[in-house]
Write a structure and sequence with these properties.
three-stranded antiparallel beta sheet; 0% helix; elongated
Length: 193
């Protein structure tokens, strides 16, 4: 007589009870199954090969699981919003990643705008053998953080040389066109570019 298998699967809602950060796995407590705690279940991710994505929910977060008939094996499909944990946006045009510490990374496809908001340091590391390059095509605006308004009042610091093919101005004064009285009483000439 051939062996038979019960391939029935169930969709279950639960709360994350433990997180395996290195393995990208979760244990989930399922209220509908008398608060049964699952074994370690893999958390589904968009990519895990050459391209990779890593993100795990916190303990206590509500998730959806797909479990086998005995509730022993399965996977965590993802987290879901609730009345306690509301979505960070209300537009189908927005992709938002909001972190517990307040950091936000947001893209609005209707405008093309990208927002990165954080109290931490943003590092762009163009790590190449020959040189490190940051290319900005378009207008670059730097706004100094003011004391008492989320910043420390410190000026931008650059460690290395700056080259410009056009004018450089500070408070309306042109670097190449600037002249001033010399030490000997004469006028200095404009800088040669």
């Amino acid at each position: 007589m051939p062996q038979t298998h019960d391939f029935t699967a169930t969709l279950q809602f639960g709360m994350v009870s433990a997180v395996d950060e290195a393995g990208h796995n979760l244990r989930v407590r399922i209220p509908a199954l008398e608060d049964m705690e699952t074994d370690w279940l893999p958390m589904i991710t968009p990519a895990a090969g050459g391209n990779q994505f890593y993100s795990l929910p916190d303990e206590g977060e509500q998730v959806i699981c797909l479990l086998d008939a005995r509730g022993e094996n399965g996977c965590v499909i993802g987290a879901i919003y609730s009345t306690a944990d509301k979505p960070p946006a209300s537009s189908k045009d927005k992709w938002v990643r909001r972190f517990k510490n307040g950091t936000v990374i947001e893209h609005d496809r209707s405008s093309g705008n990208v927002l990165v908001k954080t109290d931490g340091v943003v590092t762009i590391d163009a790590d190449t053998v020959v040189e490190k390059t940051l290319t900005v095509n378009g207008l670059l605006t730097y706004t100094e953080g003011l004391s008492g308004q989320g910043g420390n009042g410190a000026a931008a610091k650059i460690d290395g040389a700056i080259e410009a093919s056009g004018d450089i101005k500070s408070k309306g004064i042109s670097l190449p066109d600037h002249t001033h009285t010399g030490d000997s009483g004469g006028q200095t000439s404009k800088a040669k570019m």
